[in-house]
Design brief:
It is a single chain. The protein has about 500 residues and is mainly α. Helix content is about 80%, strand content about 0%. The protein contains 17 helices and two strands. It has a two-stranded antiparallel sheet with strand order 1-2. The chain starts with 6 loop residues before the first helix and ends in a 6-residue tail after the last helix.
Length: about 500
Amino acid sequence: MADGKDPTLVKETLDKDLAKLGRAEAAVQATARSVVAPGLAFLFLAAIVVIGGALLGGQDNGLLIIAAAAIGGYMALNIGANDVANNVGPAVGSKALTIGGALVIAAICESAGALLAGGDVVSTISKGIIDPSTVPTTETFVWLMMAALISSALWVNLATVLNAPVSTTHAVVGGVMGAGIAAAGFGAVHWPTMASIAASWVISPVLGGIIAAAVLAFIKIFIIYREDKIAAARRWVPMLIAIMAGAFGTYMSLKGLKHLPWFDHIGLPKALLIGLGVAIFAWIVTHPLIKRQSRDMPNRNQSLRELFVWPLIFSAALLSFAHGANDVANAIGPLAAIVHAIEAGEVASKVHIPLWVMLIGAGGISFGLVLFGPKLIRMVGESITKLNPMRAYCVALAAAVTVIIASWLGLPVSSTHIAVGAVFGVGFFREWFTANSKTRLRYIHAYAPNAAKTQYAGVQRRKAARKLVRRAHVNTVVAAWLITVPASAVLAAAIFFALEHLFGVVPAT
């Protein structure tokens, strides 16, 4: 070159500079993406404050109501980010739904469940945890519920950051208990109710896991490990879909639609009859559809998975609807109680929910799901154990059946614990079945070609030697479950004492 520089060195220097610029650009883009979701969430909360200020700014205690509304919106965002993953996570992990499709379906169904079946009356003291008569003043009650709402929202937010699916119901229960103890002493807590909730920590996941494992065992024995898989599928898949439809019919009658006028007094016997009718109708509809869909399908497991895709998608939608109908109260229950106490000047055992409060709950859950939900959806659906449509179907069916059994036994259960426990059950059953199933071995020896038998045997030994459920996730999730109520309670008590000193709350004497 004329300036005496080596062209090769110039090119290498230029390539290094371009690589540095590329890495810097990628880092800027990643940083920008990381702040988009929190920024949009902040705008949602800011909109609540601005609109609330325009509507309520001139009222007495209007600022307090606006602050409570913003905190309720924050709680709703966290419910959407954490709880909804349990409804659509298995469908995403099994590849039956894309993450985008799952977000759209869940957001629509969650909002519909909250607005159509969320009810217009809610208990002011979540799950009967404390006796309102022990709270000395209405002002104390307002700050008690405010502390409970803040603490439960913060705890669910932390759990989401740590990738741990937790029960938002338990977080609210712990918040109410802790703030109630701080405001009115240990005698304010209804300890038998707390004991039953503690029992649900074990009952919910174990029952969900057992039912999911039992359904998967049935599918393996009667469909997968059969010489003619397609013929077996034509016989049993419509029956399994009918059972699922019947379970959801009963589930929705008991839980998801209980606030609608036609369903407000339905007990378990009537709900079971409704479920039976839905099951019969589903079998009549799906039997010819499955027969037509399975025509010319090759005799392999991939064909079986295709038959479960649409039932799994519908189950995810129904679970989201029922979740929106039930768990929206976790965000708006304390908020509705605060609004009533401020406006009426009294503490009531049940209060009506204003429409604007319901909109905050429904909108917050949907925004939280879309903005922050993918992380937990992938964890539940992909990280704990490998799912396909058949295994994910077992999780969905277990979730509905477990709620019905718990309602029959009068046991309080957590939908989060049931769904994640069902995922655990599917994974642990696969570990056991791979290592110990005689049915699997008989199938291999009877129907597999000689060359394939050796391959199957090698695969079986390798699968038996490794774990199909990631123990690290099991430990994280179980630990989060165990400490949710006490952690939320301690945090709520601390927040209540802080509010007491800041705003002059009068505690019980």
